[in-house]
């Protein structure tokens, strides 16, 4: 190409050579013979040709293993070779007299010859005053004439010699005599780019410069890279990097459609989505008939341009197959390339035997097809036959894979010599001298960073306390350059900038961005950014952050289990042994141990001793003893073992690598372990691989850790942060986990303060939440709460009282919105159904008192779908992706059962070791794994939805009561400790307290958009045309159902009228604790006002102002109020005294008989206390308090068992058995509303066993957990325990 680009020609490029070239890596011109010489680094040859491409010849030189550069002078050709590390000379025409001039230690990159006669003195048309051009003077083809030209963003004036700037909106025009355009990114970047300095006008205009040169400084002083500007992402945090993106790009750039980002036009249609919205790869652009393909491109039939090298490579790069036509099979491979065995695909010879399947049929890895290695510059690996450059030998790196390039005799047991600018490590490795004492360890043993304090820094550098050398201009620049920030100490006499409002000033005077505070990293150098009072109260979310137990510091996950007490001198919670051991999924056995297939390590001497020491017999499978052949070597062929052969006494045994296990059918063979078949440690998806497995996250989740084997094991849901909802007392308590501390408020409240919220469910797609009011026996719904809102509940029109049932649990199918409700008969609620018996001779009670109902989201068209063989359903979950519902039964035959959503195909998945399950949760992201709580066993168990792979996740003394699962953790609630705990959902690691003081909690649920909807399930009902009810069935099926009592007609429709739907509750934007009404409007608290409760109320201020202006009037009102209050008190006191006198007169004659189920209590008026006697009631479920002055009789025929686990007794509560009888057994009451009182031991009158007949009270397991009666808490009641049952005892799993 001519120096001026030959603008008059359509294609100014002339192709001199195209074929028989591999990698032309070096080029040189012989000006005296008009020849062009080149060196090919792949074909290992040197050649020359005329300037027009004719007369190609090859020079028979030998030492051309990898020509990197060349030069011509006189009759000689000089070149440098990388593989040989040599500078070589030969005759330029014949290649004879090949001589090595210099051997180098490092790679010789370029050669130059300096001599006045090296190049003839040609006439220069631009030699006189640059041809009169103001900027560029370009010589024409053949050295004839010249033209003046301008740089980019300049225009040529009519005189055809002068250029003036023509800056775009994205550029800044320099002033003075240096008229040029620079990118606006360079304006105020701290470094002058214009000769007159106009691009750096000073701090008064530019403001304080925080970011280093070359980075974009945001308004909030965050720093971002230039390529992140206008990329559609708010990298600054304040949006300043996405401003002014609508301006036109430079002519040589392409503007992305969505973000306005400018990219080079050469990036378009290259197969890479550089814009992020694929606008640079759009068909309208890349397949346009107007698009011109270059000479090095091939035009497809669809007008797409692809590289010529992609044609006939057996890949459909065009997309229409036009680059892979039948004639491709007839095209011969070019020089240095060879055809694959099963296709016409050609690959370079160097790609054979390189360990990669380049042919797609692995034929290029056949040892028979390995190419011959160059004897001069290449080395053949011993095992694979791969050819590697000799420069890779003896460099401490295992390039062959079998280490043969490091163990070859030519290495002499050592590595290559290091150059004068390099540093030799103890292992022989050479590293650049500039890497020594730079704060980063390069040598395997850290030699390069040792004894640095004894070294001297070079000129222009200063030494840190640890010996590290840093540039002098970095001293006292408010940035930590020394590891301990010593460069920022003692800077009092130095003029330096102050920390900006967007920065935090550390105790050592270093300035760091505020976003780096309290993130677990020691950014300051003195840890002051992590130990401030602000950090001790800051959010510290697991799993990437760890909150110390005592110092309350927030650590990075990488600081755990590192052998250092990062929590502080007196807090070792980050190095707790049980937590640190959980970080390792499988232990690595010692050299003298045998690793079993199940990961267990046993002493190697126990292998092949005919005893199953592993527990899976893997230490005995594969053992061999063959007479005289008692070793792997003597037997030959690795002992016949597929993988590992190890010698033992009188024989040897075959075993397998990690991820494999011995084949029971052929013990010497190894078969892959399918880790995904069991409950592996993947948070969500698992992909089995040969010898291992990979973890992946669902589409709406993202990897929070992408580090080696941790990838995919920490899936975090996209979208807004999660909230934990707890049904506690009469409130739906919302715990915000993403803020300063734990923010709790009532997302909804029951109408009556004595009510209980006992069930919660969410519909993430319709953004609705449902709850059960246990006292009213009704279901409410509202929009899902956001922030600190409270919501008004919409009562669903489901007549549970009319059906004679009580709702106990609720769940939602978010694919259809259907509501599933578990309920029990009112008889169970009233205590007429007894608990399970200890004696088999006792009659079996009614087993059909539990039901599962189905309804539309607003409560219409109720349908009973499960009835019979269900006694006390206590929990309910849905699995829309499986088309199933699962529920727990706490009745006589306790169980976990699943059924299709229409109630058919019922299956008991768990029936053993289940006593009183109270709560269930489902992990839809983990293939619908089910969790349930059993307070009797103090456990949380998990099982697959088909009943397989049951494991115990939690076994805790605090007695779990309710559970939910989200992301990587389970959240479980203890009614005993009134605390919400969180821990790993596989049961590993430590248990953390999330919230405490949760009074009377019944249920816990995590609210987040993708908490349950992890797979974007599509219901079969979307294609159905059901008249009333439609439910999802397995395999994307569906079923049409009719309301209860309605028989479907022949066409599947229901012969009943349609009921008008309730108005959907609307989401609102209320703030500051405002209450959302059903219509979306806000009801504000007294402190705020406005449509969104976003303004402070002015009413209170107005009142205060009024009172301050009328001080004396207010004083008179206060005095009058006090006088009236005193008069009312005087009258009340006299009335009280008269009532007390009348009470004492009647008290002596008062006696009563009270009935409590089968218990008759006679009170003695002589021994009667001066308290009002509690009211008697005729119930078998509840027994009120008994006074110590009464005589009690019981009927032994009605002896029943106490199995109530809803309110376990605290260990430190005084035992009532000592109050009743010192030697007799204790009996506990099973009242669903009974709360055992506490007593002072000195106040209890001790009676003998003949004074009291211990009652046997009939107890039922209430389906609804008991809620303390606030009115009865003040009554001094006496607890009578069941002698046959100790509620604090644990049931063994055995």
UniProtKB/TrEMBL annotation:
Query: Which residue ranges contain the repeat LDL-receptor class B?
Result: 883-926, 928-969
Q: Which InterPro entries match?
A: 6-blade_b-propeller_TolB-like, EGF, EGF-like_Ca-bd_dom, EGF_Ca-bd_CS, LDL_receptor-like_sf, LDLR-related, LDLR_class-A_CS, LDLR_classB_rpt
Q: Locations of Polar residues compositional bias? A: 1178-1195, 1207-1220
Highest taxon of the source? Eukaryota
Q: By its UniProt entry, which CDD domains does this protein fall under?
A: LDLa
Q: Cite the residue spans of the region called Disordered.
A: 1171-1294
Please report a single Pfam family linked to this protein: Ldl_recept_b
Which parts pass through the membrane? 1111-1136
**GO molecular function: any one?**
calcium ion binding
Instruction: State where composition is biased (Low complexity).
Output: 1221-1237
Cellular compartment(s) = Endomembrane system; Membrane
**Disulfide pairings:** 211-223, 218-236, 230-245, 293-305, 300-318, 418-430, 425-443, 437-452, 457-469, 464-482, 476-491, 499-511, 506-524, 589-601, 596-614, 608-623, 1084-1093
* Recorded GO CC terms: endomembrane system; membrane
The residue ranges of the EGF-like domain are 1064-1094
Give the UniProt keywords, A-Z: Calcium, Disulfide bond, EGF-like domain, Endocytosis, Glycoprotein, Membrane, Receptor, Repeat, Signal, Transmembrane, Transmembrane helix
**Topology in the membrane?**
Single-pass membrane protein
For the biological process aspect of GO, one term held by this record is: endocytosis
PANTHER family with a match to the protein in the record: LOW-DENSITY LIPOPROTEIN RECEPTOR-RELATED PROTEIN 2-RELATED (PTHR22722), MEGALIN, ISOFORM A (PTHR22722:SF14)
Q: What is this protein called?
A: EGF-like domain-containing protein
Biological source species? Caenorhabditis briggsae
């Amino acid at each position: 190409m001519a120096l001026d680009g030959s603008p008059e020609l359509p294609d100014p490029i002339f192709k001199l050579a195209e074929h028989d070239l591999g990698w032309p890596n070096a080029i040189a011109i012989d000006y005296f013979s008009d020849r062009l010489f080149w060196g090919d680094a792949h074909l290992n040859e040197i050649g020359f040709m005329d300037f027009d491409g004719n007369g190609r010849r090859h020079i028979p030189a030998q030492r051309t293993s990898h020509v990197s550069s060349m030069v011509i002078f006189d009759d000689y050709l000089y070149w440098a070779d990388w593989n040989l590390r040599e500078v070589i000379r030969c005759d330029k025409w014949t290649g004879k007299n090949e001589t090595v001039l210099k051997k180098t230690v490092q790679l010789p990159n370029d050669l130059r010859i300096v001599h006045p006669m090296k190049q003839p003195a040609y006439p220069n048309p631009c030699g006189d005053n640059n041809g009169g051009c103001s900027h560029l003077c370009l010589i024409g083809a053949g050295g004839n004439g010249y033209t003046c030209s301008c740089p980019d963003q300049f225009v040529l004036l009519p005189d055809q010699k002068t250029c003036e700037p023509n800056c775009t909106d994205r550029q800044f025009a320099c002033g003075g005599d240096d008229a040029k355009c620079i990118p606006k990114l360079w304006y105020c970047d701290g470094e002058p780019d214009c000769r007159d300095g106009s691009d750096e006008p000073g701090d008064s205009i530019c403001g304080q410069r925080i970011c280093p040169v070359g980075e974009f400084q945001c308004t909030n002083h965050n720093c971002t890279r230039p390529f992140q500007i206008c990329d559609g992402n708010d990298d600054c945090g304040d949006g300043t990097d996405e401003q002014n993106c609508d301006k036109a790009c430079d002519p040589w750039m392409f503007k992305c459609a969505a973000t306005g980002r400018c990219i080079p036009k050469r990036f378009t249609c290259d197969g890479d989505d550089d814009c992020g919205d694929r606008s640079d790869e759009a068909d309208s652009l890349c397949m346009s008939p107007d698009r011109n393909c270059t000479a090095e491109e091939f035009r497809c039939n669809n007008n797409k341009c692809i590289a010529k090298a992609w044609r006939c490579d057996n890949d459909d790069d065009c997309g229409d197959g036009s680059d892979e036509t039948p004639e491709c099979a007839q095209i011969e491979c070019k020089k240095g390339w060879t055809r694959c065995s099963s296709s016409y695909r050609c690959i370079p010879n160097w790609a054979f035997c390189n360990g990669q399947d380049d042919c797609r049929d692995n034929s290029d890895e056949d040892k028979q097809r390995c190419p011959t290695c160059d004897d001069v510059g290449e080395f053949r690996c011993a095992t694979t036959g791969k050819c590697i450059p000799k420069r890779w030998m003896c460099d401490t790196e295992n390039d062959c894979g079998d280490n043969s390039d490091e163990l070859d005799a030519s290495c002499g047991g050592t590595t290559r010599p290091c150059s004068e600018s390099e540093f030799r490590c103890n292992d022989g490795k050479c590293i650049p001298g500039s890497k020594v004492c730079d704060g980063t360890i390069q040598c395997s043993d850290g030699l390069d960073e040792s004894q640095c304090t004894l070294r001297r820094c070079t000129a222009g550098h200063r030494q840190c306390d640890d010996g590290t050398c840093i540039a002098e201009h970095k001293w006292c620049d408010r940035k930590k350059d020394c590891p301990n920030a010593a460069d920022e100490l003692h800077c009092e006499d130095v003029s330096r900038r102050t920390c900006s409002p967007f920065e935090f000033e550390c105790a050592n005077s270093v300035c760091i961005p505020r976003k780096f505070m309290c993130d677990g990293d020691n950014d300051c150098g003195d840890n002051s950014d992590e130990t401030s009072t602000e950090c001790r109260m800051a959010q510290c979310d697991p799993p990437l952050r760890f909150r110390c137990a005592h110092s309350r510091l927030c650590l990075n996950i990488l600081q755990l289990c590192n052998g250092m007490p990062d929590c502080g001198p007196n807090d070792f919670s980050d190095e707790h042994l049980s937590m640190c051991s959980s970080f390792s999924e499988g232990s690595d056995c010692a050299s003298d141990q045998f690793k079993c297939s199940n990961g267990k390590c046993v002493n190697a001497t126990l292998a092949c001793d005919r005893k199953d020491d592993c527990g899976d017999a893997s230490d005995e499978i594969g053992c061999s003893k063959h007479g005289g052949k008692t070793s792997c070597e003597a037997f030959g062929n690795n002992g016949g073992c597929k993988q590992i052969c190890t010698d033992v006494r009188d024989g040897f045994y075959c075993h397998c690598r990690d991820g494999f296990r011995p084949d029971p059918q052929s013990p010497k063979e190894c078969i892959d372990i399918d880790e995904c078949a069991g409950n592996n440690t993947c948070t969500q998806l698992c992909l089995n691989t040969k010898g291992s497995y990979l973890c992946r996250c669902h589409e709406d989740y993202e990897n929070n850790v992408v580090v080696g084997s941790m990838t995919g094991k920490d899936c975090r849901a996209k979208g807004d942060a999660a909230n934990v909802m707890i049904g506690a007392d009469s409130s739906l308590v919302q715990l915000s986990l993403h803020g300063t501390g734990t923010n709790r408020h009532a997302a909804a409240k029951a109408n009556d303060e004595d009510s209980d919220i006992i069930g919660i469910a969410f519909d993430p797609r319709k953004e609705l939440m449902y709850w059960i009011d246990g006292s009213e026996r009704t279901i409410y719904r509202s929009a899902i709460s956001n922030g600190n809102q409270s919501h008004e509940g919409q009562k669903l029109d489901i007549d549970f009282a009319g059906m004679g049932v009580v709702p106990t649990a609720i769940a939602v199918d978010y694919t259809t919105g259907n509501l599933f409700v578990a309920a029990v008969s009112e008889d169970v609620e009233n205590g007429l159904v007894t608990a399970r018996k200890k004696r088999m001779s006792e009659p079996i009670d009614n087993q059909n008192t539990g039901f599962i109902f189905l309804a539309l989201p607003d409560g219409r068209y109720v349908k009973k779908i499960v009835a019979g063989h269900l006694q006390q359903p206590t929990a309910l979950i849905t699995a829309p992706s499986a088309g199933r519902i699962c529920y727990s039964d706490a009745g006589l035959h306790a169980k976990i059962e699943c059924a299709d959503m229409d109630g058919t195909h019922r299956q008991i998945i768990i029936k053993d070791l289940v006593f009183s399950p109270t709560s269930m949760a489902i992990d839809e992201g983990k293939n619908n794994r089910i969790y349930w709580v059993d307070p009797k066993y103090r456990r949380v168990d998990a099982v697959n939805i088909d009943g397989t792979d049951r494991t115990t996740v939690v076994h805790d003394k605090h007695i779990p009561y309710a559970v939910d699962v989200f992301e990587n953790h389970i959240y479980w609630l203890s009614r005993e400790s009134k605390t919400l705990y969180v821990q790993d959902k596989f049961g590993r690691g430590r248990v953390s307290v999330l919230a405490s003081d949760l009074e009377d909690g019944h249920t816990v649920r995590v609210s987040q958009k993708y908490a349950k909807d992890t797979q974007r399930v599509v219901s079969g009902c979307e294609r159905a045309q059901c008249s009333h009810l439609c439910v999802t069935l397995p395999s994307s099926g569906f079923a049409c159902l009719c309301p209860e009592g309605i028989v479907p007609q022949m066409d599947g429709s229901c012969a009943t009228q349609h009921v008008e739907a309730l108005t959907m509750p609307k989401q609102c934007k209320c703030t500051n604790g405002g209450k959302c009404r059903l219509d979306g409007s806000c009801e504000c608290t007294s402190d705020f006002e406005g449509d969104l409760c976003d303004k402070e109320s002015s009413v209170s201020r107005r009142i205060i102002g009024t009172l301050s202006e009328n001080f004396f009037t207010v004083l008179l009102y206060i005095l009058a109020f006090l006088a009236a209050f005193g008069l009312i008190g005087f009258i009340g006191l006299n009335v009280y005294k008269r009532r007390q006198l009348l009470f004492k007169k009647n008290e002596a004659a008062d006696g009563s008989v009270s009935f409590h189920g089968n218990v008759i209590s006679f009170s003695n008026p002589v021994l009667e206390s001066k308290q009002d006697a509690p009211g008697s009631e005729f119930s078998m479920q509840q027994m009120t308090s008994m006074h110590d002055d009464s005589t009690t009789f019981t009927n032994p025929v009605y002896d029943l068992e106490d199995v109530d686990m809803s309110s376990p007794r605290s260990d430190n509560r005084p035992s009532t058995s000592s109050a009743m009888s010192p030697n007799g057994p204790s009996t506990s009451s099973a009242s669903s509303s009974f709360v055992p009182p506490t007593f002072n031991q000195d106040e209890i009158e001790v009676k003998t066993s003949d004074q009291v007949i211990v009652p046997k009270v009939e107890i039922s397991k209430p389906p609804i957990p008991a809620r303390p009666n606030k009115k009865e808490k003040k009554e001094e009641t006496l607890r009578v325990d069941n002698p046959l049952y100790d509620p604090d005892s644990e049931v063994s799993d055995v």
